[in-house]
Amino acid sequence: MLRNPEIRRMLAVSVPLCAVFTAVCFWLDLRAGMLTAALSILLITLYLLSARRRYRTMAHLAEDINAVLHGRQDISFAQYTEGEVSLLRSELRKMTVRLTEQSAQLRQEKVQLAESMADISHQMRTPLTAVNLLLAGLSDPDLTEETRQNSLRTLRRQVQRMDWLVNSLLKLAKLDAGTVQFRRERVALSELIARAAEPLSILMEVKGQQLSVQASGSADCDLAWTAEALGNILKNCTEHMREGTITVTAEENAVAACIRIRDEGGGIDPEDLPHLFERYYKGRNASQESVGIGLALSRSIAAAQNGTLTAANVKGGAEFILKLYKGTV
């Protein structure tokens, strides 16, 4: 205890003062000197005992903190109720609760990461297997030209699928890391919808689908990223319906820019609806090529730009509502 600089400083000041006062009292009166000496010794002893008790408490507290940092969660700080230690106890209790929450969150994230990696590996393995089989078949010298062209088309489709999957995963990772810098600019809603629908025009034509657009007003958003989000929604609608019309209506009001996308695909299974925007979730009616990333990516993009994305069943199909708010919600 005497190695503590605070106690050494206190003794260095108090002992000489007590000695001086005691000497003065002895010079004035013998009994006064004896009384002063006794009181000085008593006060210094009480201080040392109090300091010893306090530092013992602090030592036990340090041991408990060390136990918490090493994973123990059954530590109670209720015994530390003395003065400033009580204030420290309150803060330590908050720290313990926070560390426990973070530890549980980290464990959950590790489990989710392991499951995600397993799912991604599975999704990548399927097109890679198809690519290997197609490449092996293309090396056959007796292959007809028609079969060769069909194999090349299938090979190109599988490579495009892997390219889309990798790009989507990279975009999700960037959004999670907060490294995406969104350019907030004034964009006409008609231009936004046209850009989002452009890559799907051939697919919709092949499937006999039409796109009906009624748009007015503008939105404050990043054109490229928002078109990506909107394009994933349109792609989902295209994949879940045969022939029919996808209707997009967009308008701007005083609060937000609102885009509604409605398809004629029969709607979303009620059991899938609460999980529709979860990553890697595949619904009952999902195609074999679905990986459950597109809608999750769309919601992440919307949330990063102060927006929301919801889905609901309507008569004859499903409806997605993308809102980009002008202020904080």
What does this structure look like?
60% of the residues lie in helices and 15% in strands. The chain is α+β, with helices and mostly antiparallel strands and 329 residues long. The strands form two sheets. It has a five-stranded mixed β-sheet. The radius of gyration is 36 Å and the shape is elongated. The two termini are 56 Å apart. The mean pLDDT is 80.
- Give the number of helices: 8
End-to-end separation in angstroms reads: 56 Å
What pattern of helices and strands is seen along the backbone?
Answer: HHHHEHHEEHEEHEE
Low-confidence stretches: none
Q: Estimate the mean pLDDT confidence.
A: 80
Give me the Rg, rounded. Answer: 36 Å
Secondary structure category: alpha+beta
Largest sheet: 5 strands, mixed
Estimate the helix proportion, in percent: 55-70%
What global shape is seen?
Answer: elongated
Beta-strand fraction estimate: 5-15%
Q: Tell me the total number of β-strands.
A: 7
Give the strand line-up of the largest sheet.
2-4-5-7-6
Quick rundown:
It contains 8 helices and 7 strands; from the N terminus they run ααααβααββαββαββ. With 329 residues, it is an alpha+beta fold. Strand 6 (307-314) and strand 7 (317-325) form a beta hairpin.
